Amino acid sequence: MEDPEGGVKPQFDGASAAGRKDGKKSRRRKGKRGGQTRSAAHPASHELSGNAGQPARPIEDTAGHPARKRKRRRRGGHGVSQEGALRPQPMEQTGVAANAVRSDGDSPSSRRNRRKHRGKRGLQGRPLTSAKPSHIQLQENRIEETARAAVPRDVQNGAGRKGRPEGNAHQGDRQAPEHAWPEELYAALDLGTNNCRLLIAQPTRPGQFRVVDAFSRIVRLGEGLAASGRLSDEAMERAIEALRVCASKLRNREIRRMRLIATEACRQAVNGEEFLGRVVAETGLELEIIDRETEARLAVSGCSSLVGRETRSVVLFDIGGGSSEIAVIRIGDNRFSRLANHITHWTSLPVGVVTLSERHGGRDVTPELFEGMVREVEGMLGRFDCPEIEIAQTGDFHLIGTSGTVTTLAGVHLDLPRYDRRKVDGIWLSDDEVSAMQAKLLSWDFNSRAANPCIGPDRADLVLAGCAILEAIRRRWPSPRMRVADRGLREGLLTDMMADDGVWRRNRNRRGQRAK
């Protein structure tokens, strides 16, 4: 049998030698030679043995290892000629790698493996990028130019982003193209009975968004509303001052879409519409008063990611300043993309932490006073016509609380030196832990509650009223565990606006086009 390595050494000005000399070496070739070139690794790997014209045979190098065999030739006349000289071998250009050489001595399995992985990876292990059709490339270039032109020049240059954290300004090359329009921002404002809150966010992965800027301030707009039926001048001044800050944040950014809502205080007050007209005149913000059903659905939309796939029933409650929304959610085998579509029963109790504490007192709360508040809320829940929830097995049902009351309980339970949303949002509390935290807060006086960093003086007179509402809900729907949500109407507004605009669907389509 003829030695496959036989024949005269090829001249180094031939086609195959030029390919080895000038072309880049693949990772597989480099690995076989330890990253060195053939000439450097084996300076004299072959020599003529015997008489002239006899085939050359490999010899052992100075290190004692057998010399590496040269790459075999492809069958079909590209190998050794009858005269013993090598013919120049034509090179096939396949995308990036153009130096691959085959031989008739390859085993069938190796050839199959090479054909299988051909085109998947190029030189140096980099993925091969296929050229896009010209019309697709032109369309993407136009979309990119349009998006760039819509952004102000100062924003393109990085100016005018005072509200954005530095850590989010540059997220790396892998995280930068999270969606197709990096400057599309959405804003949601919630003016409640107790708080004024604003969120500005940017859509990222489907169903998620990244907060660009946020604002929250306790304004107590509903202070004195239960007694007089009107918004006081002092409360309106506090709210308008907070809304001026929100208006300034919104003016400093290019907002694609925003929704600004007002809830129970403006719904109940006789001068609610008059107050909103004053807000437009002094801040330029136009707020809409939403009804109780919309408020309940938005609370559910904001907490949809906290409901696991294994859950079959949920009671979600939002304890506000002037009202408390409760939604009963039953999830069957087919789960909708929007959790709010699974609401079977809902109610809005005309009581919140501000109104309940004003009626019963919130500074010095005794166990008897606390029980009186619980019974008042229980009477309201008794008029809520909702069938009992059937629990087949543990884990099918749980509570979700989205309010300052439950987040305060979670912060006290974790004994945080200062409130940290990242540690509170999504945490589970057992029924015994909730009871222990309520008893602990009830044992503290007003000064002790105000001194706690997770409560503070602004909530010290409201937290026990919220605990009374929570206790009434727990008695109506006993559950072994409760999940804490530091989110609510703002997150629901953002989720609904982004879903209605189809930004996550467009994002998936755009990623699919880039992958082709």
What would the keywords be for this entry?
single chain, alpha/beta, Nucleotidyltransferase, domain 5, five-stranded mixed β-sheet, pyrophosphatase activity, ATPase_NBD, Ppx_GppA_N
Brief digest:
This protein is of the alpha/beta class and 516 residues long. It contains 21 helices and 13 strands. The chain has a 6-stranded mixed beta sheet, with helices on both faces.
Task: Please explain how this structure is put together.
- With 516 residues, this protein is of the alpha/beta class.
- The chain is 39% helix and 14% strand.
- The longest helix is centred in the middle third of the chain and has 19 residues, at 233-251.
- It starts with 14 loop residues before the first helix and ends with a helix.
